[in-house]
Amino acid sequence: MPKPLVLHDDRLFPADPGTRGIARRLYAEVRDLPIISPHGHTDPSWFSRNEPFPNPTELLLAPDHYLFRMLYSQGIALEDLGVAALAGPSQADPRAAWRLFAANQHLFRGTPSSGWLAWVFSKVFGLDVRLDADTADLYYDTIDAALRTPEFRPRALFERYNIEVIATTESPLDSLAHHEAIRDSDWSGRVVSAYRPDPVVDPEHEQFPQALARFAELTGEDTHSWSGYLAAHRRRRADFAAVGTTSSDHGHPTARTADLSPAEAERLFARVVAGGASAEDAELFRAQMLTEMARMSLDDGFVLQIHPGAFRNHNPGLFARFGRDKGADIPTATEYVRALQPLLGRFGNEPGLTIIVFTLDETSYARELAPLAGHYPALKLGPAWWFHDSPEGLMRFREQTTETAGFYNTVGFNDDTRAFLSIPARHDTARRIDCAWLARLVAEHRLDEDAAAEVAVDLAYTLPKRAYRL
Amino acid sequence: MPKPLVLHDDRLFPADPGTRGIARRLYAEVRDLPIISPHGHTDPSWFSRNEPFPNPTELLLAPDHYLFRMLYSQGIALEDLGVAALAGPSQADPRAAWRLFAANQHLFRGTPSSGWLAWVFSKVFGLDVRLDADTADLYYDTIDAALRTPEFRPRALFERYNIEVIATTESPLDSLAHHEAIRDSDWSGRVVSAYRPDPVVDPEHEQFPQALARFAELTGEDTHSWSGYLAAHRRRRADFAAVGTTSSDHGHPTARTADLSPAEAERLFARVVAGGASAEDAELFRAQMLTEMARMSLDDGFVLQIHPGAFRNHNPGLFARFGRDKGADIPTATEYVRALQPLLGRFGNEPGLTIIVFTLDETSYARELAPLAGHYPALKLGPAWWFHDSPEGLMRFREQTTETAGFYNTVGFNDDTRAFLSIPARHDTARRIDCAWLARLVAEHRLDEDAAAEVAVDLAYTLPKRAYRL
Amino acid sequence: MPKPLVLHDDRLFPADPGTRGIARRLYAEVRDLPIISPHGHTDPSWFSRNEPFPNPTELLLAPDHYLFRMLYSQGIALEDLGVAALAGPSQADPRAAWRLFAANQHLFRGTPSSGWLAWVFSKVFGLDVRLDADTADLYYDTIDAALRTPEFRPRALFERYNIEVIATTESPLDSLAHHEAIRDSDWSGRVVSAYRPDPVVDPEHEQFPQALARFAELTGEDTHSWSGYLAAHRRRRADFAAVGTTSSDHGHPTARTADLSPAEAERLFARVVAGGASAEDAELFRAQMLTEMARMSLDDGFVLQIHPGAFRNHNPGLFARFGRDKGADIPTATEYVRALQPLLGRFGNEPGLTIIVFTLDETSYARELAPLAGHYPALKLGPAWWFHDSPEGLMRFREQTTETAGFYNTVGFNDDTRAFLSIPARHDTARRIDCAWLARLVAEHRLDEDAAAEVAVDLAYTLPKRAYRL
Predict the structure, then answer these.
(1) What is the mean pLDDT of chain A?
(2) Disulfide-capable partner of B319 in A86, A353, B313, C8 (CB 3.0 to 4.6 Å)?
(3) Interface test with B, best of A16, A353, A375, A395 (most B CBs within 10 A)
(4) Using an 8 Å Cβ cutoff, are C309 and C256 in contact?
(5) A344, B17: Cβ pair inside 8 Å?
(6) Between chains, do B392 and A399 touch, taking CB under 8 Å as contact?
(7) In this structure, which topology does domain A52-151 adopt according to CATH?
(8) A286: distance to nearest CA of chain C, Å?
């Protein structure tokens, strides 16, 4: 007897009936607003080619590190889940992988993945029983059949999902061909890129020398001189702007910034391109490049996003076999006050600049980030990120930032995901939690309900659109 | 159509009706208790001169860094808000500044400032519509008119506010003339000082050499010798005691303490007064001075307050134009266990000594401060402070300290403010949140209601009076 | 008129009636499950000798550092509470000590001790009035009389408490005589040991040289050579296994691990046994020993527990008079990501290994530990520990770990106590809080109630039994 899959209308709302009633009313104001997805990792080729997605395992399981990391943590081999190794694609039968996933759904109890998946299963595929060992094949067949229909192609889902604009993320070495194809197509969906220069900014990346060479080819600049290297960035930022880009994004080990003199920066760059830069030089170079990017933002208006604090590739055995992004990136304590001071001291008072800072270290919300964003005109707080864009994590973000930074120094929600099918579920989670938080403020007579309704709309729609200049 | 300003009787109480009912009953026990304000930054000249406060902008907006930092963070110039620059007073028209403040009230949604202001507007000035662009002039005129009446002079408000005692904070270089005038007047209000020697203790303060010279003049001691310097402190502490002082206060970058031998301390002091002390010597000197102050407390009974952990003047551009205390002080991660060990190892078991420690780093509540205060007889926990004396911050303090330190190793509430008009609102917020926390303990059958009522009174009145020896 | 002592059936459940109803139903599933106590500090001689416990003070007050540290923090001398000094046993009259404790019960308001004690007083001794100055003698006489009856001997309580298995903790220098006696007796109670080698692993322990010598005597190995030292560990682990041991336990200042080559490890050990190892060598040796213990676990199947992060003996004056474990151990900020990388990089993917890590630094839950446990097959999260195994602490553990690690990378509850009488109260607290958390997930439609009921049973019984291989 399969168990019913129920997606309750009141999910994620506070249990207290009075507060829940307020949350319902606030949520009614934002439930149907278009999705602004200002930062994420979907693949632009989906939207340029508009080809069918493959089978359930390749669509939903194998690319989703939230899912396979949890299964791996309980001793299930990645090979058995359809995850490609460096040596080649998984040999696992997709249906067998799906059954393994289905039989271990208990591992996801209480996790955000269970909520996102329930939404996808119920709302997108119309399933009304829970996924488990007994229903694995029913699920596989239902989803597989749906994916072969036109209604489940990427552009159709994009429209069904009411996405007003979505940003992907590309390196300066990307040709942007898919973005150009989308732009030049007759499809009206708005898909923009974000400029993520980490491969040409991080001297510790194993491909850094090749990346610099390719950067030169693509731009015609001498990327081994400091002035040519900066010019190459400016050229590529202009190329990105031409496909709608309004932001850059920077994933660094720390939040460190620097404000070196031009001569110091040039000497540092010379050491970096000579190869064998010390760890301190590599860190200092990344730090200085954030300030350089901010300087370019003063000209081209790109919003500067900083995503610091992940210890990447913590598991060397897994990295050797499977490479990056396999669930072995772990947050670390991250300091912002001293780290951001050079950048903010230089450009923090610029009215035309927007710097959006994220954190994997929740202790910085109330202690460092809200006080900084509640002072500097250029600084805004990115939403709860990665390990923290969950119901509890989203609520902690509001509980710990609102009193010092208010709502208007935050920028709404980022799904930041490659899991395209769950994007509405993620935004819906954020909208529900924001309404739950606002409802608590109203119920405790800390905010009037009419004001709360305005804030709810601003968080869901107005603020991300404004902050990212979309 | 202006929106109603409603100050609900149940504000800040939990939404659950049963818990709210308990909170109401507990709050009824403490609502009308006199205010003990054992630590703050009001100006003693208000009470000695008893002159009318100036206009609404100069009274409520320009001096309140909670308010103007939020407005500044959204691109509003401090000059336009009536904030004085180093070069001279603001040229802004006070009414125009007030209108700018009024039109941006949405920025304060969900912040403690909105609650404090609502109390002042409603309870003190009798306003019953919300402040916004349309009501800006009504507000300005109403408040301005009230301030010209006798009922709104400082002493009248002090009495109306039912303040039993208030402590201001002065440097050893202060003449204490205002305190002497109050003491010698026929007014019965109790206004005491606190001894805050940072200017003569911090070698990194830009005025340190001049401060030492002035310290010598005031005391007749040789403040450039270690023994004379200590004697000068003793003299001034005696002067402060004569105007009712019962505490010293120390705002240091870190919580570091030291317990040097007399010879080591003397050599350190010699390096410090010679000028050009290293950062480490400056830090060590501040650290040693906490222990010296504790030693003096054994004699004169002053309570020792430590307020560590702010990165001061983070925004150099703003500092150059506007100076200190302009909303650019940012909390930092603060370590207490190793930092306080020299002081506590030396004096922590003294039954006659009270050290009250504060933090801007909430991670230390459960991890470091509650365990330390739950062990050392001399150590008590100061309440949630500065960025954290908000509804959420006050609640986190109780949630994270009570289980290890209990209630009786805490000292009630400090408003710690220069915003005199909102002092009752701040104490009321603290009383309501403490009652909300106690009500939850009662509702969850973790505490009997009769015991909770005793605790509520102790937190609101008995503990601060006892801890500060008032 | 004494006040009634009421142990409410709904204690620790959320106040919202709907959520409370769910919590009640979930709790009904786990209330009567046997106790699995996989890690703690009870004395095996209690169960081998089965002698009566002494008077109330010696049983309940003098050994319980949660109680006497709170009293000490308010200026009550340990001597007066029956706590033995190094110089000899307390001279305090047990009844006088008990009266002092009784008269200060207000200090425990809101602390977990008050809940544990209320359970012991009510459920074990049948008392129905609250402990205070007036009832001190009633309590003393009632408890004292009960302790003289057979029903209150250790084995009788063990059975009445429905303990399926309990683990004590012994050093490799322990003879295990009590465990052997229990094993060889006709009593069926299951009491096992845990292998805690800190005295022979920590070069900074004051008894380290003597411990190594004794370790050699007990094992017949040359404990001053690296290979002999490791062989001695293997021998003693086998001895422990023979009395049912399934785990080792390691209490280190930090979580640091190392993965040295055999030659490096041998050279390090040589420096350590030569005496006067540097602090860095001592730290590195402890770090390497965690990896060596994990290597042995691959052979003998012991679960490896790491309990890091306490600053021991913070109060030197108290330490000099009373020695260790007197409430002066204070948690410190503890880093796990870099610290555990050598161990996890080496053995983290081993399917047969279980490493259980604990923390005194709650900031690591969501930031470091849940992400690590949600990835590495060998790593599991130990429950909230020591200062944090309280209602708020247990709830924070679930709120901050569940979303990333799920429930199945945690291992249920450890009481970790020497306070035998309160063991069921501690497990009951954990069960109630887990049910409260699950009830909230159900009430917010984040988890189905049938799944929540399965999880409740797994947390209370299945997971600790499985994780500890009991």
Answers:
(1) 97
(2) B313
(3) A375
(4) no
(5) no
(6) yes
(7) uronate isomerase, domain 2, chain A (1.10.2020)
(8) 21
- What CA–CA distance (Å, rounded) separates A416 from A393? 15
Q: How far off is chain C from A431, nearest CA to CA, in Å?
A: 15
Q: Which residue, chain included where needed, has tokens 């930022």?
A: A237
- CATH no., domain B53-152: 1.10.2020.10
Beta pairing class for C330-331 and C310-311: antiparallel
3-state secondary structure C50-112: CCCCCCHHHHHHCCCHHHHHHHHHCCCCHHHHCCCECCECCCCCHHHHHHHHHHCHHHHCCCH
Assign A247 to helix, strand or coil.
Answer: strand
User: C-alpha distances in angstroms, A300 versus A193, A306, B366?
Assistant: 15, 17, 46
Domain with CATH 1.10.2020.10 in chain C: 52-152
Q: What chain A residue is nearest to C352 in terms of C-alpha separation?
A: A75
Taking CB atoms and an 8 Å cutoff, what residues of chain B touch A368?
A: 330-332
Pairing of the two strands B330-331 and B310-311: antiparallel
Cβ contacts below 8 Å, chain A against chain B, sum to 138
Judged against a pLDDT cut of 80, whether residue B1 lies above it is answered with no
For chain A, residues classed under CATH 1.10.2020.10 are 52-151
Fold that domain C52-152 belongs to in CATH: uronate isomerase, domain 2, chain A (1.10.2020)
Query: What are the DSSP calls for C385-411, one per residue?
Result: -GGG-SHHHHHHHHHHHHHHHTTTTB-
Q: Output phi, psi for B210, to 5 deg.
A: -60, -40
| Coil, strand or helix at A127 | coil
User: Rounded to an integer, what distance in angstroms lies between the CA atom of residue B222 and that of residue B233?
Assistant: 11
Question: How much is the pLDDT for B276?
Answer: 79
Spatial CB neighbours of C402, under 8 Å, sequence gap ≥ 6:
A110, A111, A392, C370, C437
Q: Do the chains contact at A109 and C406, CB–CB below 8 Å?
A: yes
Q: DSSP code of C39?
A: S
Chain A contact set for C395 (CB, 8 A):
none
- Residue ranges matching CATH 3.20.20.140 in chain C: 17-51+154-467
Task: Give the model confidence (pLDDT) of B216-247 as tens digits.
Answer: 999 999 999 999 999 999 999 999 999 999 99
pLDDT in tens, B139-197: 999 999 999 999 999 999 999 999 999 999 999 999 999 999 999 999 999 999 999 99
The class (CATH top level) of C17-51+154-467 is alpha beta
CB contact under 8 A, B363 and C333: yes
Do C69 and B16 lie within an 8 Å CB cutoff?
Answer: no
What stretch of H or E contains A167? strand A163-167
Count of pairs with CB atoms under 8 A, one residue in B, one in C: 139
- C90 φ, ψ (degrees, to nearest 5): -60, 140
* In chain B, ranges of CATH 1.10.2020.10 domains: 53-152
pLDDT > 70: what percent of chain B?
A: 100
Residues of chain B with CATH 3.20.20.140: 154-467
Calpha distance C222→C201 (Å, rounded)? 15
C-alpha B72: how far from its chain's center?
23
CB contact under 8 A, A376 and B315: yes
| Rounded Cα distance, C153 and C139, in Å | 18
CATH, range A17-51+153-467: 3.20.20.140
Among B17, B73, B130, the residue with its CB nearest the CB of A374 is B73
Q: Which residue of B has its CA nearest to A17?
A: B16
Q: Please, where in chain A does CATH 3.20.20.140 lie?
A: 17-51+153-467
Per residue in B306-341, pLDDT tens? Answer: 999 999 999 999 999 999 999 999 999 999 999 999
CB atoms inside a 10 Å sphere around CB C39: 27
